[in-house]
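pinned: reference chain
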Amino acid sequence: MAKKDMEIVRGSGNVFRDFGRPNADLEQARAILAARIIKALDERKLTARAAEKLTGVAHTDLSRIRNAKLERFTLDRMITILGKLDEDIEVSIDVRPRAAHRASVRSDQRSGNPAAR
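pinned: its C-alpha cells
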C-alpha cells in the first residue's frame, strides 16, 4: 500500500472501544488501575511474593495483573489493592450518551482541537 493510500484515524481515547469491545469502558478502567498497581510495585521494587506478604493479596493475583489477565478483577478489588500498596486513589466518573460523545470527538478532530487527540 502506497503511503498516499493510508488514512490517519484518531482514536477515541479508549483502545477497547476503538476495537469494538462490548465492555470497553470497564476494560479501560481495569487497564488504568492495573497500570497503577504495576507502577506501585515497580517503584517499590516488589516481587509478587514480597507484595503478597505486604498486602495479603495472593501472588498469583498480582502476577495476573502484571500479565494483563484482568477478567477476574472487579474495580473495587483493584482499588483495594492500590490502597494496600499505600496509594491514594481518587475516582472521577464522567457519564454522557455515547452517540453524543462520538459526534463531539469527530467534531473536535475536524476542528483541530488538540484535546480530542
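why pinned: The chain has six helices and no strands. Residues 24-43 form the longest helix (20 residues).
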